[in-house]
Amino acid sequence: MIKHLLSIEDLNAEQIEDILNRADYYARALYDGRWDRDKLDQKIVLTLFFENSTRTVTSFDIAAKRLGADVVNWNADLSSLSKDESFSDTIDTLSAMKPDCIVIRHSDYGAPKFVADRVKCPVVNAGDSWREHPTQAFLDALTMIQEKGKLKGLNVAICGDVAHSRVANSNARLLTKMGANVRFVAPQMLMPQKLPAEGIECFDSIEEGIKDADVVMMLRIQKERMDRGTIPDEAAYFNNYGLTFERLKHAKPDAIVMHPGPMNRGVEIADDVADDPKRSMMKRQVANGIPTRMAILDMVMSSKK
Ligand code: CP
């Protein structure tokens, strides 16, 4: 049992497996239409998104409601932050209303941990700066297990703007802990200076980096997080690093293509690859956000403090 979910870095392989097993349970239960709809009855989940989101905020909302919880989607733009109330006073104020769980996304490094240290309820990280996005890594791992039957021994190439990607960090940590072989594929300016886990292989050629990959995970260029270097010319970037069917031939014949979204078509991925019903897992990833977040909410809100 875990009290909060703040990072993959905090978790061991057994805890990761427990969460993945519970996510798999909820994926099957949703498919069969049989699960405990009152599991979180009378509980209130407070979502605090200080950064925009389509997938994560909506799937936490739906996941909580599927388990019978009420959800309060707090809106930073309409809050008293605009009247210069500080972040810590805002958190103390919201905590005084006694939510049963806080789900937070913030652009500042370590904000979810800062909140977890101040409040009495469980806190779930829904995106922490460029550092971690643990629930995304869990839904991605669930998708890989559904398609490939395992994580151990899989060759997973994570390609694109790895330097600014919390998804790359969390995925690399989870996958290496579970025995997968992780590669980062990026031009030098988009490769992180410090790798998030041991054993990651780095490539600046996409053809070499995706060779014999079971999973090719593409990432968008995160212009909002770029504080060094220049933004590459998008057409040139696509020519050198965009995933096309021609390039995908370097991966295994049954390799799947993943993308956490939002995607930029014609920049990191070609339309026909993104829309391929057999190879592209993007819609499945989005769907898996619901059982994965049900599992995580169930786990943190059911755990004895
Ligand atoms: N993958 C992901 O975090 O998407 P959103 O920014 O839409 O939540």
How would you describe the overall organization of this protein?
The protein is of the alpha/beta class and 305 residues long. It folds into 2 domains: 8-131 and 287-302, 3-Layer(aba) Sandwich (Rossmann fold), CATH 3.40.50.1370; 134-285, Rossmann fold. The protein has helices spanning 13-32, 55-66, 87-95, 111-116, 134-148, 166-177, 206-209, 234-241, 245-248, 271-274, 282-302, and strands at 44-49, 70-75, 101-106, 123-128, 155-159, 181-185, 201-203, 215-218, 256-258. The strands form 2 sheets. A 5-stranded parallel beta sheet has the order 7-6-5-8-9. A 4-stranded parallel beta sheet has the order 2-1-3-4. Helix 1 (13-32) crosses helix 5, helix 1 packs across helix 11 (282-302) and helix 5 (134-148) packs across helix 11 (282-302). The protein is globular and about 55 Å long. The N and C termini lie close together (10 Å). The protein binds phosphoric acid mono(formamide)ester (CP). Phosphoric acid mono(formamide)ester binds at residues 53-56, 127, 136, 260-262.
Summarize the SSE layout with pairings.
Layout: H1 13-32, E1 44-49, H2 55-66, E2 70-75, H3 87-95, E3 101-106, H4 111-116, E4 123-128, H5 134-148, E5 155-159, H6 166-177, E6 181-185, E7 201-203, H7 206-209, E8 215-218, H8 234-241, H9 245-248, E9 256-258, H10 271-274, H11 282-302
Parallel strand pairs: 1-2, 1-3, 3-4, 5-6, 5-8, 6-7, 8-9
Helix pairs in contact: 1-5, 1-11, 2-11, 5-6, 5-11
The structure holds phosphoric acid mono(formamide)ester.
Which terms would index this structure?
single chain, 305 residues, alpha/beta, Rossmann fold, 2 domains, 5-stranded parallel beta sheet, 4-stranded parallel beta sheet, 11 helices, 14% strand, globular, binds phosphoric acid mono(formamide)ester
